[in-house]
Amino acid sequence: MFNDRDFEVFEDPTLAGRMGGIKSEIDPKFEAIAPLISDWLGASATHIAQHLRRHKNPPMNTWIAFNEQFRGYKMTPHLMLGFWDDRLFVWLACLAEASQRQWLASQLETQLPELATLDAAFQVSGNHMAKASAPLTLANSEVVLARYRQIKQADFLVGRQWFRGESVFQDEGTQQAELHKTVRALQPFYALLQGGEQKS
């Protein structure tokens, strides 16, 4: 599973070096855990970030996404599991590119009170390409959702983060349990946004 050494990939300042590290160190771990995440979530398709538009600057983060569309994920609600240089994250994401954005916003609005009941470790964010996030409270989620409705470039993300050096990176069993708990907590909302039913 994931460990503190995986973060060292982001210490390489070059595009070739960092991409090489992502491909050799992180992507195989994404591939290994993908069947578990897919099963917990009830997702049929997986997409490992390829960073194809990177020609000069190395990627600041990397991820694997889970959804129901084999041809892509950015236009649909999806779950992201990924790395920054200092944290591992799991986000349920509706991005700016979503094709049914207003419908998604309406669905999210009905679920905000339920989302706010998730445990205190959960966060909400409005930008999948920035580290900034806020505690998942009803007030914070309302602010992020309002921004998602009004600003074309905004995202809506809810999930959890684990920081480099935390004990979760030292014990595989604990890490798998944390990921399972997080994905299963988000699964009903993922299913709703797919127009599907909760996985039993």
Write a brief caption for the model.
The chain has 200 residues and is α+β, with helices and mostly antiparallel strands.
Please describe what this structure looks like.
With about 200 residues, this protein is an alpha+beta fold. About 40% of the residues lie in helices and about 20% in strands. It contains four helices and seven strands. It has helices at about 15-40, 100-115, 140-150, 170-195; strands at about 45-50, 60-65, 80-85, 85-95, 125, 135, 155-165. The protein has a seven-stranded antiparallel β-sheet. It is globular and about 45 Å long.
Number of helices: 4
Distance between the termini: 26 Å
What is the CA-atom radius of gyration, in angstroms?
Answer: 16 Å
By helix and strand content, what is the structural category? alpha+beta
Percentage of residues in helical conformation: 25-40%
Strand order within the widest beta sheet: 1-2-3-4-7-5-6
Query: Average pLDDT value?
Result: 94
Tally of DSSP β-strands: 7
The amount of beta strand, in percent, is 15-25%
Principal-axis shape equals: globular
* Series of secondary-structure elements, N-terminal to C-terminal: HEEEEHEEHEH
For the sheet with most strands, the description reads: 7 strands, antiparallel
Unreliable stretches covering 5 or more consecutive residues: 196-200
